[in-house]
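Bit of a strange request maybe. I'm writing a small parser for structure token strings and I need a real example to test against, not something I typed by hand. Could someone generate the tokens for this chain?
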Amino acid sequence: MRTYDRLVTQTAPGATPGPAGEAGNGLAATVPAATVPAATAPAAMTAKLADTVAATAGPPGRLAGLSARAAAWYAALPRRHQDVVQDAALALSLAVLNLLSLLPYQSQLHPSWLALLLVAGQCLPLAFRRRYPVPVLVASSAIRVTYDWLIFAYAPLALAPAIALATVADRSGCLLRRLTVVLTCIGVGWAQTLPGHHQPYDAIVQYFLFGTAWVVGTLSRRRRVALAAAASRAERAEASLNEAAARAATAERVRIARELHDVVSHHVSLMAVQAEAVGALLPGRPAAAATSADLIGSTARAAMSELRRLLGVLRFQDHEDPERPRLTPVPALSNLDELIDATREAGLQVTSETSGPVAALPPGVDLTAYRIIQEALTNAVRHAPGATARVRVTYEPSHISVEVTNGCPARPAIPRGQAGAAGHGYGLAGIAERVASCGGALSLGPTGDGGFAVSARLPLT
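Reply from user aminoacidic:
Good idea to test on real output. This should exercise your parser:
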């Protein structure tokens, strides 16, 4: 500590040494705070170190930037051009490898420049091997045969012609592949007759090299064909799934539209009839008008309840909302009395008759039968005011039959424009769709006394 104080005191400008026993105090007393700040030495060392790191990290940073720009340029190229870039890199790398293999024997090759040119030239056509497989094979093999024909020793392995042969096996048609195999065997056999190929293993190596290249190319072609077939199957499967989903969505839209029509048509028609009655009864019969107004309110609440049930089914799923509130049950023939009472309150005299042993029905058949009766009564209220209607339900062992018949209207029907949105003519079409979906038979049309009859026979299985 004393040595450090003494050293700082001696090197600090303008400092005077203090007593030997008070070197620290002398430094504090004789060195001004502004002359040697506490952080001067560490800060200077940190700045110098940062400059050194930045100077040494410059070239790698520039190299990384060049690599990133090259990668971005390559990624922006079309797929076909990317293949050319890859093949060009392969051709250049193989040419450099061939040149390096001949450099130690350069003094024994005459002329050496021609030998180096030929070993590099047989690799350069590989830059276009995937675009022109057969011409590349011909060019590379011709240059290689020229090298052997000029009796240059120390020939490197014929990797370039072998790669070109593998490309032909991968990319060409059946006839070209067979012709290429025959010509390659003839060419390799003829090359073995040239001077310098007197060793038996030379022919074995050549045939093994080209045979391996042919096998690799064949396997690559088969793998590519298999992948294309798998991709085609996946596309067809996805298209079929999309088509099935579209059909299901269309069927669901039709079902939803049918349900909404049935709910809105029935209840809104009843409200329209009662609203007309209120207008007619208000001057002289306020009590009856109040009763009709109450019926409008109860019918509107029933319509809202059914709409809430239907929209609730569309909006929620059981696994998504465990706290889902209770929804009203789907309408069925068990609610037929309520439907008939509401129709009677709307002013239509209805009689009901049920025959046969009452049995539990499939949900779809039960709902269809209820909706047929509901639509038929709705049409009677709208188009045959003041008439009488008869509902007959017949249970059979394998079928259920429903029939709704109304008589001739006693007064003019409500004009379509005043009947609300329920009068657009989709009711009978909806009945026909429901009956067809159950595999049943439907019969409807006017009767001889000026009324209308709807009859349906629905199978239970």
